[in-house]
């Protein structure tokens, strides 16, 4: 009942024209949106239970809203404005996708072309080059196939995220062995479609369109805050070099795996700057102000449990928790 009441109030506010005023008020600030994969099916069990993969129809509704009220600009343009101390283009939005899921090509790219919207894809290069599933997806897969609960999934991920890679990998293998389920190859026939990785041919075709920028997201998707300085450098450098080799273009933007406050430090940041990156992204939430540093940028995470009203509310800047 309370939920219905809240929905009615929200709908009333959205129809009142107030969001328009907020959008105008926030027009000098940019919003960087974070997506992962898209999906065109309904999921059951633990598959997509944390809503990381957005239904393609929902994604298109969000793009339509952006087309009607905002201007979607390339990440390069936003970074150029920040570096030169210029105002950011009015009501600007930057689209980003993390990890390198195949659905970025099969489901998102056709819509980005239809709406002529640029986007940046941050690639975990081991996932794309070798089809080794990202470790968090291996946790999802093993627990889902063993019929475990969402609470167990959340708890297990939380525990694993606090571990250094040298402890995490044996712990993950032990978990998989004890549950009897292991996702070996993200593009294998029996792998759930949402876990599949892009191929470099897809990456190059998207880059050729002029709409898509490719950027680095480490090689193995380790959380850098749990790694030694040597591993941080190796992970970031390897991912940059592979992307540059495969695309023939400089790779100058980086995105932290997990990206919360404890997942990076001034040390990781200076290693990444020394490798020649011009911007870094986190998963901290908020708008980007003109004159802000292009490092440790905040983003709005967009998930499949968000309806169009919630998205409109978020994009207007009316949500006090998200500014
Ligand atoms: Zn990631």
UniProtKB/TrEMBL annotation:
The keyword Signal applies. Keywords: Signal. It comes from the Bacteria. GO terms for biological process: carbohydrate metabolic process. PROSITE patterns: NODB. One of its GO terms (molecular function) is hydrolase activity, acting on carbon-nitrogen (but not peptide) bonds. The keyword S-adenosyl-L-methionine does not apply. This is Peptidoglycan/xylan/chitin deacetylase (PgdA/CDA1 family).
